[in-house]
Design goal:
Radius of gyration: 19 Å
Largest sheet: 5 strands, antiparallel
Structural class: mainly beta
Oligomer: single chain
Order of helices and strands: EEEEEEEHEEEEE
Number of helices: 1
CATH class of one domain: Mainly Beta
C-alpha cells in the first residue's frame, strides 16, 4: 500500500528496520533535545510527518520494545490511532516509567507505525442484548 507523506525539513520517512517488520520506525523531529523525567515524565514528541492514510485503514502508533525494556519509555496512549482523515503532524505521546531521566534527540527512533484495516460499525439501539453462557461476568471471569 502506498502512503503519501509530507516530510518537514530534517524529518525522516517511516522506515522498516527489517524485511519482516510489521511496524515502521517513527523518529523524533526536534530542534533541541527533550528530557523525560523519571517516574512518569510525559512529552508530546513531533515527527515532522503528515500522513495520508488511505480510507479504510488506520495508523497504529506503538511503543518500541527496546525503549520499553531498557529504559521504561513507552507510548502513553498505546496504541495511538491516526485516522485516515487526519492531516496534521503526527506527534507521539511518550512517558518515562523508568527510574532515570531519558533524553530524546533529533532523529531518534521513538515509536513504530503499523498500518491496519478498519471497519466502521453500524450501531443499532435495542432494548436488551442476547444472552450468552458468560453473561455479565467480567474481569477475570474466565480465570487469571
Amino acid at each position: 500500500m502506498k502512503v503519501r507523506v509530507v516530510v518537514k525539513e530534517s524529518a525522516s520517512l517511516p522506515l522498516y528496520a527489517s524485511k519482516g517488520a510489521a511496524g515502521a520506525d517513527l523518529c523524533a523531529c526536534l530542534p533541541d533535545t527533550i528530557t523525560l523525567d523519571p517516574h512518569g515524565g510525559i512529552a508530546v514528541v513531533p515527527t515532522g510527518l503528515v500522513l495520508e492514510i488511505p480510507p479504510g485503514f488506520e495508523g497504529q502508533v506503538r511503543p518500541r520494545s527496546g525503549l520499553a525494556a531498557k529504559f521504561g519509555v513507552t507510548v502513553l496512549n498505546s496504541p495511538g490511532t491516526i485516522d485516515s482523515d487526519y492531516r496534521g503532524e503526527v506527534k507521539i505521546i511518550l512517558i518515562n516509567h523508568g527510574k532515570e531521566s531519558f533524553t530524546i534527540s533529533h532523529g531518534e527512533r521513538i515509536a513504530q507505525l503499523v498500518l491496519a484495516p478498519v471497519l466502521q460499525g453500524q450501531f443499532i439501539q435495542v432494548e436488551t442484548s442476547t444472552e450468552t453462557e458468560r453473561g455479565e461476568r467480567g474481569f477475570g471471569s474466565t480465570g487469571v
